[in-house]
Amino acid sequence: MTYRALLAALALLLISPVKAQQGPAAHFFVYQVNPGAQAKFEDGYRHHLGWHRSHHDPLVWYGWTVSDGKRDGYFIDANVGEPFAAFDHRIDVEQDGADFKASVTPYVTPQAQLVYELLPQLSDGTPLENRKPSATVQVTYFDLRPGTEARFERALQAARRVLAVTPDVLPHTWYRLVTGGDRPQYMLMVARANGASYDTFRKDIADLLASDQNALRDFTDAVRSSTTESWQYHADLSNLP
Predict the structure, then answer these.
(1) Around Cβ 11, how many Cβ atoms within 10 Å?
(2) Mean pLDDT score of the chain, rounded to an integer?
(3) Tens digits of per-residue pLDDT, 18-67?
(4) Contact 205, 155 (CB under 8 A)
(5) What single-letter DSSP state applies at residue 188?
(6) In Å, how far from its chain's centre is CA 56?
(7) Are the beta carbons of 47 and 208 closer than 8 angstroms?
(8) Nearest Cα to 83, choosing from 2, 7, 21?
(9) Is the pLDDT of residue 11 over 50?
(10) Cis-peptide, bond into residue 106, ω within 30° of zero
């Protein structure tokens, strides 16, 4: 390589945003949009994403609106696919917080900050980590009885084997709660293109385990309660550097 070409390559590295490393961390932030503030919130959030872009933030940010269930209308954003340490090295945390406070905080009421760990060994697809979000996502939370995690994950392994031979299957991604809520808790995200996807695939975990009584028993004994909701993806309220 010539001296001039080497200088050009080094310059390109210096001006290009640094890509975050891959990892299992998944940070979710939940907000209730204040009454009558939806338009102002969306404008403010887009402005805040502009701050991230102008500062060459390498972290991915997805944005969704909850479209049904008890939290209908809530906004959820998330960073996924990096090591947990990535949040220790965010771009200018002080200015980031100040811009968020000015642009977004007046229009929302924060509800939760949840940190999950991706479970690739139980998942049969990772669209978010691959930066391929679906138009909607069906999200189910499972609250477990303490001490049943091993039985629950054993049941999920059996369910994954069934999914591998099931036609018209949709990507199932599993996460385990690390901090931010009651434990043990797991979250399942099923990527869906539209409402018509329910016509071709509507099996829940119990359906998948119907022919495996031992796995079904592990599953039902472990789960204390579950709740499901749908999220609508907003590309204009997301940032995928």
Answers:
(1) 10
(2) 92
(3) 344 689 999 999 999 999 999 999 999 999 999 999 999 999 999 999 99
(4) yes
(5) E
(6) 21
(7) no
(8) 21
(9) no
(10) no
